[in-house]
Amino acid sequence: MGLIPGVARAVGPGPVAPAAQGVAATGATADAAGAFKGKTFSSPADRTVVTPKSGDRSGGTARAQGAQSTQGAQDSSRVSISLDATSSGAHAIDLRTIIIPWDDAALDVTIAWGDGTTDKFAATVGGFGSDLRYTKHKYAVLGSYDVKVTVKDTTNGVEAVNELRFTTLGAEFTPHAPTRLLDTREGIGAAKAKVGPRSSVALKVAGAADVPAGASAVALNVTVTNATGPGHISVQSEKDLAEGAETSNLNFVAGQTVPNLVIDAVGEDGYVHLFNGGWESVDLVADVTGYFTPAPANGYNSLTPTRAVDTREGLGAAKGQVAGQTSFGIEIAGRGGVPKGATAVALNLTATNPRSAGHLTAYPSGKAAPVTSNVNFTAGQTVANAAVVPIGPDGKINVRNGSWDPADVVVDVVGYYSADSRSALVAHGIPFRVLDSRKDSWGRKAGPLPARSVLPLRFEGDTTTPHVDGWVLNTTVTNTRGAGFLSVAPDPNFWSDYQNGTAVTPQRPVSSALNWTAGATVANVAQTPGGKGGMIDFWNQGWEDTDLLVDLLAYYQTD
Predict the structure, then answer these.
(1) Helix or strand or coil: residue 233?
(2) pLDDT tens digit sequence for 446-486
(3) Which of 18, 406, 472, 491 could crosslink 535 through cysteines, CB 3.0-4.6 Å?
């Protein structure tokens, strides 16, 4: 959005982290999605059920039981099957089978994936030998499946079976009316008391409000307020992860009220944990706008950031500031790449030129304005925050100016959720640091992003067929020396184009992911697709150098 003067508030870097001129790409990570390890499932060999010639059914492995059995003839024809599965993507399973016959055997193997499809192969194995192989399968629909492996030993006339229960890693989105789950000022969701220094609060998400018990991830707007000193907030699925995190979701200084969107995993117990990394007590607020479950619902669709509203220009709304304590509607569905029938929109909401302190709230049309908020600001400040907003039945959302005085509003659309998409969220629960410009990284020396420059980062190696549909990134700027804003957009090149000097210069975006002033540390979530080569551009749109940190929270995938 242009360089809009704002109100500066200084802050030390805290654990924003633990701690190029022109266009030069860096391979900060060759495979960012690979940093998230999938879940594992297993069924050991002793669960194998064997049907021998006699028609008996017995369990156990040939090696474990055959040598000690008195039924020598029967045992010599036993087969064991060991199964280990890993969720290698949102919809995919990697299955390792180890098949061990006791005697020489010709094997016909059938893998029934539980979705009505099968894979088959044949193998010939000598006695005491084994057949080890990996087989990959993609499920069209998220869910839990019984994977059954059947081995027919045609040489010895026996059949062996082993199976395991597998659940896909991905999760699809369901919009939730903006609802306050936590407010330590009021005793909502936790004790009515500030969260102490270097301590955390447990927030029940799954099973709260209309979030089902089986929710595996959540979209929360987290706000820190009534701070009396600087610090940071980390939100994670487990208490020890939150308290030991080397990354942060938002940063603050004394007197500041700061929000940020959090899209991340929910713990197996249904909770998330919010850690106050400062040395003074703070109040915390958390509002839910949607949740993710490992079942068909609404998949994500990434868009190149598109400006939908700018009240300074009369774009998408009446020209002129939005009066205090009023709302205006925005046409979302059927415009700017968002189809009719979309259930929710991912956007970046910015308040600028406010005449007094206040907040903005985005909510679905046809509903009363909730008590929740998405953006908080003071007089003269420019503040952006990511939001996921349910779309009303008429295809619109509303934005309310909760201040008593007018303010300008800017809205950039970055994606949407739809029942027609199967692109599912993969949230590992432990953020992965992709970049810290203050430190050396592969292909890049430590140093701030130069003013008015772009830094392309590759997220999927040197690929021409990206497997990730969209990335959920927490971006943070620190050590800022003047006013500016950050843009995040897909890069138009392949990694090899940068390597051989044929890369085209990316077009400078007009949208913004976050805004800052001198001396500020500011964080915001950016949801963005990678380009055709799985690369993403980070633009320092300011006139002074600044440090940048990028943390991977999750990604969306159809594979």
Answers:
(1) strand
(2) 999 999 999 999 999 888 899 999 999 999 999 999 999 99
(3) 491
